[in-house]
């Protein structure tokens, strides 16, 4: 393999997805991590639809779905009594090819990605620490340490996907403003018996003062418990599972027979002041951390990696000016700030013991939400919010125009029920034009001359419901977001869009 052009620090999901996508684009990379291997006690469980759509571009989504467990329902408990069921198994129907929430623990997730990366010819360098780096404007020289040995690695770009205590973020001297929640969380893998272990979904307690989730793990047959250390034991030192066992068992009517591992941790809410500087970038927890509400953290980091990967590839392969990389921060930091604010509000109302919190947990969740979930508009709103398919880059320098309800910057709506699937061509990870209806000869000729793939889909009622416009031109980015949406097939508008952004089409280079 050619000399690495990108050094990725951190082999969690964010760094691994960045590495995989860069490899697909033909960019030689190197990835290091100071840990000895993939995580053993991770907390993230939810894999949302937008992440699975990104994995589908790599041909990996169905394999991951088969390894995980589709959450068919959310089961609400109070003191060992099942209070209500909220069916979420197919609540995003017609919105995504993955209309559900997948339960797949981060430790298994990381091992899955490590293996796929190995198949691509890249082995993660474990026990390797970033000591420091220098950016001279032309290259980045990073000093790496493994054991007692140090070496210098010279690359075009450095990407810090190295978590909340990011060495790359510290090296850039970026502020990481925010704070920590007062609650201490716990996470455990246990073998347990009881009704909550046979539900095939996510179990949540509704207790006025307690918060805990129980989720199944297919790979081990274990249950993962995630919750807040109860008041009765939070003042103890060196808390073990036995300290919380009686309370946790009572919440769900469980009997825990075996504890695989147990850990406690604090949760922060922070966003870095910038997501990059010069030739160094940060992504995932290195750039933003927030409450566990909605299981958004890991999925957001993966979204960062997808956004950054194709832009790095384009610049390195001469298909775009370096200014393209300036669009990474504004596109991702706006969502990160919004996410921190919204998950903070959601978390506070879930755990606070004031009147609003008590009303939410004891009335809205068990009695109102199950009834509201029968409404299609409520199901669709909840799916769009959780799944991250609502993320839009409207206002970005890469976004232009509007056709139907779809604007430049929006995720391309899915049109794949009962016919051809408009997401299948996205596996090219390259720019493409999509038309729903008929493509004019001038557009066909222009696409061929410019080396842009043109995909024409039949006009359907689903395309109309998705907000697409018949016979409009949609120029789709490598990450599945619309760059240009134009109501007519005006080739001059297409040429102006590409020229103004310095983007050229052509065959992807290989390493």
Automatic annotation (TrEMBL):
Listed SUPFAM superfamilies: FAD/NAD(P)-binding domain (SSF51905)
Alphabetical list of Pfam families matching this protein: FAD_binding_3
GO molecular function: FAD binding; oxidoreductase activity, acting on paired donors, with incorporation or reduction of molecular oxygen, NAD(P)H as one donor, and incorporation of one atom of oxygen
InterPro entries: FAD-bd, FAD/NAD-bd_sf, RIFMO-like
Sorted UniProt keywords: FAD, Flavoprotein, Monooxygenase, Oxidoreductase
Cofactor(s) required, per the database record: FAD
Location of the FAD-binding domain: 5-341
Superkingdom as given in the UniProt entry: Bacteria
PANTHER family per record: BINDING MONOOXYGENASE, PUTATIVE (JCVI)-RELATED, TRK SYSTEM POTASSIUM UPTAKE PROTEIN
Protein name per UniProt: FAD-dependent monooxygenase
Native organism: Microvirga alba
